[in-house]
Amino acid sequence: MEEIPRDVRIVEFQPQIRQLLNWVPIPAGKGLLSTAVQLRRVISHLEPDIIISFMPETSLPTSITRYFASKRLFKWIVREGNSTRIRLEQVITNRPKRLILSHWIRLAYSAADHVIAISEGVKSGLVNHFNIAPENISVIYNPIDIERVQKEGKELLSFPWPKEKIILGAGKLTKQKGFDILIRAFAKLRQRVHARLIILGIGEQKGELEALGHKLGVEDYVIIKGFVPNPWAYMARADVFVLPSRWEGFGHVIVEAMACGTPVVASNCDFGPGEIITHGKDGLLVPVGDVESLSQSICRVLEDQEMAESLRQAGFKRALDFDSKKICSQYENIFKKVA
Predict the structure, then answer these.
(1) How many other β-carbons are positioned within 10 Å of the β-carbon of residue 245?
(2) Quick one: pLDDT at residue 308?
(3) 233 and 331 housed in the same domain
(4) In whole numbers, what is the pLDDT of the chain averaged over residues?
């Protein structure tokens, strides 16, 4: 919240009638109707010209609000930041409910004035699985404040930095992020390289990951640090950053690590990493879930200093393509087009 300018008004919804429509389980866990009712009150009061909604959790209530709008109609932009199909499959196991929600997403997104996808992969998913018209979708990558990342990357750490080679991972401790794959790759790597693994993040898999480290005999060399307010200070000091995800919408931490001047190894998952990284030039890509390939690629970076330096330099240059100034201008163009 502290990063939001003071002149930006924040309205927090209170789920007073969350029990309504809860038979449609969405990832946010709130009733769609509850959110729509509260959103309509806000819209009636503020009378916005443009609304941009993020992900189905807010986009579906927005579609309800727009359908029943009695006053001036606002322009509506949907922004999708992950694989919609995979998220539905992971969250909703009941197939009939998933089909209903998929149909609703198709209708809602097709009715929006424009759709922004966070990557080309997310765009293709919307086109192929939800029949959204490709000409109504723009791809705008996640922005990164290069100047801020570099500045905060130089800040001192209270955490005692190990003397060994450091492999760093960061993200929610969930199945999607694949930290179990990373720990297995690290266990293989430890037979060859004296290194430690640090993982930044919180999530429901923390206990499972710790148990896996114990099972593989590397618990003394794996540090699950939890949430840290300044992950860039860790990235800037790491010898290699690893993203072992099973799927992504984009892979924002890849660009953050590049901006910190850290070599990156990532799984070539759907979607994002393959759009950010050119394999062998500004990072290394490995097949999803391939423990052996991941271990070998990390070893290459740790052992080949010439290659590591080349990846650092090319990676930083690539990160500049995602600087917030460039990305903000793309959003501005979309707003002008829609308005």
Answers:
(1) 28
(2) 97
(3) no
(4) 90
Residue 188 predicted with pLDDT over 90: yes
Average pLDDT over residues 262-291: 96
Q: Which of 99, 96, 48, 52 is nearest to 74 (CA)?
A: 48
Whole-structure pTM value: 0.85
Burial (CB < 10 A; 0-12, 13-18, 19+), residue 251, is buried
With respect to residue 304, please indicate whether it lies within any of the assigned structural domains. Answer: yes
DSSP category for residue 65: H
Same domain assignment for residues 235 and 224: yes
Q: Which residues lie below 8 Å from residue 282, measured CB to CB, with a gap of 6+?
A: 258, 264, 311, 314, 315, 317, 318
Token pair in block for residue 63: 């579609």
Which tens digits make up the pLDDT trace of 10-22?
A: 887 654 433 333 4
For residues 207 and 297, membership in a common domain is answered with yes
Range of the domain at 304: 146-321
pLDDT one-digit tens code per residue, 208-221: 999 999 999 999 99
Which pLDDT does position 72 carry in this prediction? Answer: 62
CATH code of the domain covering residue 253: 3.40.50.2000
Name the CA radius of gyration of the chain, rounded.
Answer: 21
Cβ-contact 48, 73 below 8 angstroms: no
Task: Count up the domains in the chain and report the number.
Answer: 2
In three-state secondary structure terms, 16 is: coil
